[in-house]
Design goal:
single chain, mainly alpha
């Protein structure tokens, strides 16, 4: 994956945690399906998708420059 594609993905997804959680969850669902259907290549692809989605979420979290979220008492 080229750096320009990663940069475009970071800009498109933003700072909200929802899209990253959705990508990770979708990867797990595909992984469960691939395991149950005995499809090893799809399982490897799902594992890589979850791994890349997690790394992307961590990079976005560390690069966040906004104010900290307000916690309601």
């Amino acid at each position: 994956m080229s750096p320009s594609v990663v940069a475009a993905m970071l800009v498109a997804l933003g700072d909200d945690a929802g899209p990253y959680a959705l990508m990770i969850g979708a990867g797990f669902l595909v992984g469960v399906y691939a395991h149950a259907a005995k499809m090893p290549r799809l399982l490897v692809a799902a594992i890589l998708f979850v791994l890349l989605s997690t790394i992307l979420a961590i990079v976005v979290a560390f690069s966040y420059d906004g104010s900290p979220p307000r916690i309601k008492p």
